[in-house]
Write a structure and sequence with these properties.
Layout: H1 13-16, H2 31-44, H3 46-63, H4 65-88, H5 90-98, H6 100-118, H7 121-141, H8 146-156, H9 163-170, H10 174-190
């Protein structure tokens, strides 16, 4: 069932950044649970995250337009090349599926190396890495709510497609969620 692309709604500030009671340190011992929390938050707050990235990009781009253009181009090309290699080369595809975090770190390290050759390291750090770090910190610390879980289940079964969902597909993060959802429904049917 093919679904058309939809933009996730902008979540209210009070939901995106509520009081301290809705934030908690992740369970570092349970990487699966931490990963699920991050993916759920990335999917649910994706439009808010896009606005945060856009604000930082515009600010850094205003200060150094050529460096920001160069940095964005290099990171985009490295990411596109690595996704292509991940789809067409079995060894890279297996690595990406088993180690998605290391795959993203490899893309960022390669981008950093290429930008260091051009002298664009500061733009890379402040314009690209800093907003990603802010997003990952928020996604790691923000506790999920009922709406968050429901929206992610709807997207996980393919009823709705969003830009973050497509990015997660490129990073092979959705298959695990779909399998978990199917297991959940199968266990409910057996009960």
């Amino acid at each position: 069932m093919a679904a058309k692309m939809e933009l996730a709604p902008l979540r209210p500030w009070g939901d995106f950044f509520p009081g301290a009671d809705r934030f908690s340190k992740p369970e570092f011992g349970d990487l699966t649970k931490w990963n699920d929390r991050m993916i759920s938050n990335l999917m649910y707050y994706q439009t808010n995250y896009f606005i945060v990235v856009l604000i930082v990009f515009l600010f850094v781009g205003f200060l150094n337009p050529f460096g920001m253009f160069l940095g964005g181009t290099v990171v985009s090309l490295v990411f596109a090349g690595s996704v292509w290699a991940g789809e067409n080369k079995a060894i890279i595809k297996n690595f990406k599926r088993k180690n998605p975090t290391l795959f993203v770190i490899g893309v960022m390290a390669t981008s950093y190396f290429l930008l260091s050759l051009c002298g664009g390291v500061m733009v890379f750090i402040f314009g690209i890495t800093f907003p990603l770090l802010l997003i990952l910190i928020h996604a790691s610390l923000r506790l999920r709510n009922i709406k968050n879980r429901l929206e992610n289940k709807i997207e996980g079964v393919g009823l709705k497609k969003t830009p973050m969902g497509m990015l997660m597909d490129l990073l092979d993060q959705q298959e695990d969620k779909i399998n978990k959802i199917q297991d959940f429904f199968e266990s409910k049917v057996k009960e």
